[in-house]
Amino acid sequence: MIPVIVYDILDILAVLIRFAGLILFGLGIGWFAMNTSRKNIWQLQVAVFLGFLGLAAVLAKFLTAGAFGAYVIGAGVAIFLWGKQKVTPEEED
Predict the structure, then answer these.
(1) Taking a C-beta distance cutoff of 8 angstroms, is the pair 7, 56 a contact?
(2) 3-state DSSP percent of the chain in helix, strand and coil, to 5
(3) By the 8 A CB rule, do 78 and 24 touch?
């Protein structure tokens, strides 16, 4: 028989891993959105924007508040980090 404290420790570890994973997922999605929005193809910009909002809506529906907050923190940091960078013509290729 496994003591109850082991289950509690595993629950805490699972929450921390989910939190860190969703922060990294938010960073990745935010980087992708910022990277593709710099292209001058307006159809791609619209598709990425709607996909970004759609993903946020689905995650808000099916995740807990803490997990969704981790995703939003990651996406917000990514948008602030990579959204402020200037793109030179050499970097676009």
Answers:
(1) no
(2) 85, 0, 15
(3) no
- Amino acid type, 8: D
pLDDT of residue 73: 94
9-31: average pLDDT: 94
Q: What is this structure's pTM?
A: 0.80
> Of the candidates 28, 45, 27, which has an alpha carbon nearest to the alpha carbon of residue 36?
45
Distance CA 13, CA 10 (A): 5
Contacts of 46 (CB under 8 A, 6+ apart): none
**Cα Rg for the chain, rounded, in angstroms?**
18
pLDDT digits (tens, 9 = 90+) for 67-79: 999 999 999 999 8
